């Protein structure tokens, strides 16, 4: 495999898998630290969350994280032209999401994988930007998340009114008729969007 790591006995099973999947050893160790720290946040009531700002990674480089668990080569094969960023009011989006993709703020815990929601919360507490969710149409009047359910759940629980969505350019013409996109300047929504 070409992996040069020598001291496997000091690593957890998850760290070993991360390294075998191509992560540098230091990154695998850092990710293990983050998972451990995030574990403490699991199930923490929203009113007890530490202060944090929701920061979105709108860069083209960050798009590879839109689909949970998909490696960069797989993402690039699925979306060779990348994705576009569109901002939406969460209230508009919630009316059009399939039941599987929609959660209330109280459902940040107990629906899906609590450890994923805790890792999102931890990343934002540490001040790191996170890739927006990926939005797909499922009909002419309903949409779903293709990745980012936990990201959106934490943002919703935090009280965000406007959120960015990643969309495939080929799906934009359908999505714009399902959920209104907000006007932007650069990569930010303009005006009072609440």
Q: What structural class results from the helix and strand content?
A: alpha+beta
Indicate the radius of gyration in whole angstroms. Answer: 18 Å
The SSE string, one letter per element, is: HHHEHHEEHEHEE
Tell me the fraction of residues in β-strands, as a range: 5-15%
Tell me, briefly, the overall form: globular
Average predicted local confidence, pLDDT: 86
* Uncertain stretches: none
Number of domains: 2
Number of strands: 6
End-to-end Cα distance, whole Å, is 51 Å
The helix fraction, in percent, is 25-40%
**Going across the major beta sheet, what is the strand order?**
1-4-2-3
Main beta sheet strand tally, sense and closure: 4 strands, mixed
Report the total helices: 7
Overview of this protein structure:
With 194 residues, this protein is of the alpha+beta class. The protein folds into 2 domains: 8-39, no CATH class; 53-187, no CATH class. It is 32% helix and 13% strand. The chain contains 7 helices and 6 strands, in the order αααβααββαβαββ. It has helices at 13-20, 25-39, 72-78, 90-96, 114-125, 149-158, 172-175, and strands at residues 84-89, 134-137, 143-147, 162-167, 184-185, 188-189. It has a 4-stranded mixed β-sheet. β2 and β3 form a beta hairpin. α1 crosses α2.
